[in-house]
Design brief:
This protein is an alpha/beta fold. The protein is 42% helix and 14% strand. It binds 2'-deoxyguanosine-5'-triphosphate, calcium ion (2 copies) and zinc ion (ZN).
């Protein structure tokens, strides 16, 4: 029995315990145990069978969890899991992923209708049977139906940050194989798409085939889907993300990289472009259509050049006009991560962050930033202990004091102020005026009609202290779509009012997305890229925000936090 299998049984049991509404402390201990075991370097089964080793010496494994693990190693399940599976079938676990239904509702549905699959739940809603249950109505049925269709679309997709971490780990692993020259991620992760279906990795060098062979022995590979000397596919990790690895001859590296980076539509257009000039393009090379003589194959640049095109950054390869731009030599000079000089959205313990003003400042300074804004929540977010007027004014004063000592970085006093349902700011304007940098964000009433939401945002843009709209669409990747509003009208007025649009770099938001960035830029809008950090570690997410900006064709001048500290201070004054 592998660690990953033990971990999966524990995590699944935690999900079932949630449906059974068991003690949240115990549920958490199962989840912590699952991740401790999944990442443990030694085989847990060997420890169980070892006369002198004990499981409880592993951090995160207490006595009762240790007993469960011993039972799993012995017979493939354990008592608590067996009991839960008698009550709730494993398909019920899937229902936990449907937005709008908590464990309590899932249990109620099971108790009344014995329904535990997504298909059967959909039928219940269509037959208007869900609304016969206590505290459930027609509105919820509609919401569940919408969530089901969203769930089906997002099923099997993963956050970019999750894929990027695995790419990083696997790249290091594959490079350890002797004779491996390069390891490169292609596909949607190279294009920086916000969600990833599967990972595509190319390996070159005389050791490439051996690296593929070694990959299938990786402890986190849970199922091998296909394996040969030039291509291997497997499911990886607890989440079972598919990883496709290809061994590529060095002489075909550029052709393979273009082919497997995609996207499909981009590839189709450049292939037909090749055909029009008597060439064929495939994963091995660009060659003469008659005779097959090789024209270019080793680098992407050579191939694009032979097609009469400039090299295009992977983030642009979405068939959204980049090919015409490359032909006419008017590709944007995309913003680079190193050009970002400050981070302007972060929280501290004053509201729902985990670190202090000092700790966030020091972490940002260590990253080489020239300035930051601390932007805790406002009072409407009572659960997050948001600031009222008095605390906001006191905070502005505290920051002025803080900046008197030279800390190697400038701190701006900020606030992430809630935008109320009617479009007014949560705090009074005279308090907001004390702060250096005010973000306005929607955190409530996100399901209102599009016209009302548009009016709400247009009104918010009139607030004299407002500098930036935070996470403008409210989307949560794989969970919640953007709220409905007239984005173009909003972006045009933001541009006119000198209010900037945030590109929120937190991996589950990545809000704005590429097409909206381009639409807003076309209307004259300016942007800031910020991490919305709640912990010093989150500051590292900046690169994902920059990736979104690049996918939105932004250049350095479009992004206000590429200004130096002096220029930036002037811009917000
Ligand atoms: P994903 O995985 O859904 O996030 O999106 P991609 O873009 O990574 O798509 P994927 O993994 O299916 O393929 C990666 C690229 O490789 C894709 O953009 C086009 C190319 N590609 C892969 N397999 C084939 C194939 O069988 N035929 C063609 N024409 N292209 C392929
Ligand atoms: Ca892929
Ligand atoms: Ca693939
Ligand atoms: Zn927010």
């Amino acid at each position: 029995m592998e660690n990953i299998e033990i971990a999966r049984l524990l995590a699944e049991t935690a999900d079932l315990m949630e449906i059974a509404e068991e003690d949240s402390f115990r549920i958490r201990s199962y989840r912590n145990g699952a991740s401790a075991i999944e990442g443990y370097p030694e085989r847990i089964a060997d420890i169980v069978n070892h006369p002198e080793k004990t499981l409880t010496s592993i951090p995160g494994i207490g006595k009762s969890l240790a007993r469960a693990v011993e039972e799993i190693v012995e017979r493939g399940s354990f008592e608590r899991r067996d009991q839960l599976l008698e009550k709730y079938p494993p398909t019920a676990l899937e229902l936990l992923r449907i937005q709008g239904l908590g464990p309590k509702s899932i249990r109620l549905i099971w108790d009344h209708f014995r329904v535990s699959t997504v298909d059967a739940l959909e039928q219940l809603c269509r037959d208007h049977k869900l609304q016969t249950l206590p505290r459930m109505g027609a509105k919820l049925e509609e919401k569940v139906l919408r969530s089901i269709s969203q769930y089906r679309q997002s099923k099997g997709r993963f956050l970019l940050s999750f894929g990027a971490q695995i790419v990083e780990d696997l790249t290091a692993f594959l490079k350890e194989t002797p004779g491996v020259e390069t390891v490169t991620a292609a596909g949607s992760s190279r294009r920086g798409k916000e969600t990833i279906g599967d990972l595509d990795i190319l390996v070159t060098g005389p050791g490439a085939a051996a690296a593929l062979e070694r990959f299938v022995t990786h402890p986190r590979v849970s199922e091998v889907l296909g394996s040969g000397p030039s291509k291997t596919s497997a499911l990886f990790g607890l989440e079972k993300i598919q990883v496709d690895i290809k061994a590529v001859p060095t002489g075909s590296y550029g052709a393979a990289l273009i082919y497997f980076t995609g996207n499909k539509e981009h590839n189709i257009v450049i292939r037909s472009r090749a055909q029009r000039i008597g060439l064929t393009l495939n994963e091995y090379d660009l060659a003469k259509a008659d005779g097959g003589q090789r024209v270019a194959s080793e680098t992407e640049e050579e191939i694009y050049q032979a097609l009469g095109l400039r090299w295009m950054a992977p983030e642009l390869r979405e068939n959204q006009g980049e090919i015409e731009a490359a032909e006419q030599d008017r590709l944007p000079v995309l913003i680079e991560p190193g050009e970002i000089r400050g981070d302007l959205h972060m929280h501290t313990r004053e509201s729902d962050g985990r670190a202090t003003l000092e700790e966030m400042t020091e972490a940002a300074r260590a990253l080489g930033y020239e300035y930051i804004a601390i932007t805790d929540h406002s009072k409407a977010l009572a659960m997050a202990n948001g600031l009222d007027e008095q605390r906001a004014v006191a905070f502005a004063k505290q920051v002025r004091q803080f900046n008197r000592e030279d800390r190697g970085i400038r701190v701006f006093s900020g606030l992430e102020c809630d935008i109320s349902r009617d479009g007014t700011m949560d705090l009074a304007e005279d308090a907001l005026a004390e702060l250096d940098y005010v973000i306005g964000s929607v955190h409530s009433y996100m399901n209102i009609e599009s016209a009302e939401m548009t009016d709400r945002l247009l009104r918010a843009l009139e607030s004299p202290s407002l500098q930036t709209i935070g996470h403008p669409t409210g989307r949560i990747l794989l969970h919640r779509e953007s709220f409905a509003f007239d984005f173009e009208k909003f972006a045009a007025k933001a541009a006119e009012s000198g209010v900037w649009l945030e590109i929120n770099a937190s991996p589950e938001r990545l809000d704005l997305h590429a097409s909206l960035i381009r639409a807003a830029k076309a209307r004259g809008a300016k942007f800031v890229i910020s991490t919305d950090s709640h912990h010093p570690r989150h500051l590292l997410n900046m690169r994902f925000g920059v990736t979104m900006a690049r996918r939105g064709w932004l250049e350095r001048a479009d992004v206000m936090n590429t200004l130096n500290a002096k220029q930036f201070a002037k811009a917000i004054a």
